[in-house]
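2024-03-11 09:14:02 INFO worker-7 job=invfold-0412 stage=load source=structure_tokens
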């Protein structure tokens, strides 16, 4: 008798577990439409990112680009969100411009910071095994002597730039999107 009850109970539990394993959610037509639209928008975003990455990589190789920064990270890790129009690093052949304007008014350049122009030299570009791109250059000018290092991760035009001055330790890192110069919207202040 105990064996029969045990077998019956075991069969009942097995049936419940099978039923629980086959449970699935059924989407309404509205949910299916939203799900498809979401998948399509994610695919479109991936395509846009791929195109932006190819354009950014091409701009680096042609030495004609602008990195529009929306974030600055100062030497001790302090972060600031800034305007992409007035915070940028650009290169056109061998003329490099570094403009950092974390303030909203005044400054030596008239837009809340500094604008430094110099000549780029010792320009190097390399790609690692994961296809991330590393671009570096030395920039020498009246108000600037620094190494500028750009890291462009694979698949996006979102990059980081570290500016390491030669004569003092005021390193700054800029984060933003890298564009060909002709696709950029920047405002250049007075330079030194």
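2024-03-11 09:14:09 INFO worker-7 stage=emit residues=192
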């Amino acid at each position: 008798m105990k064996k029969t009850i045990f077998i019956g109970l075991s069969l009942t539990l097995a049936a419940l577990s099978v039923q629980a394993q086959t449970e699935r959610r059924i989407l309404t037509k509205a949910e299916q439409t939203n799900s498809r639209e979401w998948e399509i928008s994610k695919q479109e975003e991936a395509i846009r990112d791929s195109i932006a990455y190819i354009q950014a990589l091409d701009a680096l190789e042609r030495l004609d680009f602008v990195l529009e920064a929306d974030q600055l990270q100062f030497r001790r890790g302090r972060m600031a969100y800034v305007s992409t129009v007035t915070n940028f690093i650009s290169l056109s052949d061998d003329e490099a411009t570094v403009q950092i304007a974390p303030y909203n008014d005044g400054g030596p350049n008239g837009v809340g910071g500094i604008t430094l122009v110099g000549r780029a030299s010792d320009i190097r570009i390399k790609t690692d095994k994961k296809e991330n791109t590393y671009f570096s250059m030395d920039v020498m000018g009246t108000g600037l002597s620094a190494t500028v290092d750009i890291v462009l991760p694979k698949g996006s035009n979102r990059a980081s730039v570290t500016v390491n001055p030669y004569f003092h330790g005021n390193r700054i890192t800029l984060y933003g999107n890298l564009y060909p110069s002709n696709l950029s919207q920047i405002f250049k202040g007075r330079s030194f």
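2024-03-11 09:14:09 INFO worker-7 stage=report msg="The longest helix spans residues 29-62."
2024-03-11 09:14:10 INFO worker-7 job finished
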